[in-house]
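Onboarding guide, step 5: your first structure request.
Type a short instruction followed by the sequence, for example:

Predict the 3D structure of this protein.
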Amino acid sequence: MKTDQMDALAQLFKQSMESHPVFSNMDAGKMQEMSKDFFKSFEAMYGGDAHPFAEWTGTWIKYQTDLAQVWLNAANPEQATAAPTTDSRFMGDAWNEGIFPLLRHSYELTAKAMTDLADGAGLPEHEQSKLSFYARVAADNMAPSNFAITNPDVLELAKETGGKSLVDGFKNLLGDLEKGYITTTDEDAFEVGKNLATTPGAVIFRNALIEVIQYEPMTAKQRGNPVLIVPPCVNKFYIFDLNEKKSMVRYLLEQGQSVYMMSWRNPGPDQGDHGWDDYIEQGIFEALKVTSDVSKSKSVDMLGWCNGGTMLIAALSVLPPELKPLLGSATFLSSMISFEDPGQVKVFMDEGQNAAYDMRLKSEKIAPGRDIANAMAMLHVNESIWNFVISNYLLGKSPAPFDVLYWNSDTSNLPAKWYSYYIEEMYMADKLKVPGALTLLGRPVDTRNIDVPCYFVAADGDHIVPWKGSYSATPLVSGPAEFVLTTGGHVSGTVINHPTRNRKRFWTDGNDALDAEGWLGSASVTDGSWWPHWLVWLNENNPAEDRAKPKTLGNKTHKALDPAPGKYVLEQV
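The system replies with structure tokens like these:
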């Protein structure tokens, strides 16, 4: 703690003793002696700036100093001026009236002290990250905006509505308690197959793990080499087909592409022993064979996103000789080979937390999709949790319809065996990038076996798969690799990036001999969506002649079973 900090605190003590009513009947001499002893104890405790506790002590003293000044201002309201705030939670005019400036300012000081103390703990890197993260979550949980009695906007609305807003909020709370999660969108506004996932098609294959959907052509001729999409199994596939204005599937069909989609089953406890071998062999490999057979093409362009992309990388690393000729190219959206920097989710990845969650896996036989959704929400607790708590329960409002949030809440479970392997062998041990460190289907996993042209896409605002990690994956395959960086987030940058009315931009053609920042500095930027660029790349790297569109979906071996979007996407377990 610096001398000027100690002097500032001493001055506040003196000011308090002279002006605050609580000290009016106390002996001034005794108070002065008490303050001297108080400061001597702090000097002895921190022992100078070189002492390990000096930073903690300085932070704590500054907090006490600032908080004392806030209370002094509250005791002299005619002289007080509320400190300005940049926190969007407290921007309303009501936060500047009555007791609320005191509540808001006291909270901001306390939250800052909590997080500063946590950040200065000097722990090993991962433990320090956890402490800082959970300190921020705890500080956000304490915000006065989160409670009816300390939120002036809530009190004002309750007064205006005669308490109806509070009654409506309580009804919303009861409804969510029954469902088991916070409502983030008007769920009655959406129905899969009605106004989501409406692109026409048919399920042409089904086994215990997947359905394969073939979509109806939208042009007289189609590109001879089909696109097979491998979505993540932690989410449902229709993020690729939300509606006509956002659908990647529909856009590809309109451009003359032949499109096939994998739809993962939503597993229950009886599927909890399915592992990566099953998902690769019965899932990705079966879908590749079906797509090749029905399309009559031996040069399929495969595309995977998020953990679907990671599964695709693992699958292609052990692709058997008989299937290798069926693959034309591979595209990976926000997909990791190296887990050295797994983004913000790293805070949940360690032996202790994994062991604790393993007890739930043994009991449930699955990793519930709701658990994963809750963990992702914690990464942005104010926007993803408290924002809806305040709006839904305290203000009694109903959330507006938003298709992406509906999809996000429509979760899928993961088999316990699949989940444990993914977390332990990839996230924590980072083995996928090491040749031979993993074995799948009895074969050593080696990403260098991927020798077809590869197209990697990352988003600069992705907090789940940092773009620099995606860039580091490009030299881990042996085929020619194209790297593209787009603006946006994990979903908005890659999967939802329709060229119409697009305000995004993307970078290409950087010097791949440089590190990520060097690549970006040398890359060319283009306004708009990366989707058209990718289609040009496909034609250049896996050329195909156009063919007349098929008269029917499927073939004699793989007949149409059900209309798209199929049955598995509707399963709620």
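Each response can be followed by summary notes, for example: Confidence is low (pLDDT under 50) at residues 44-53.
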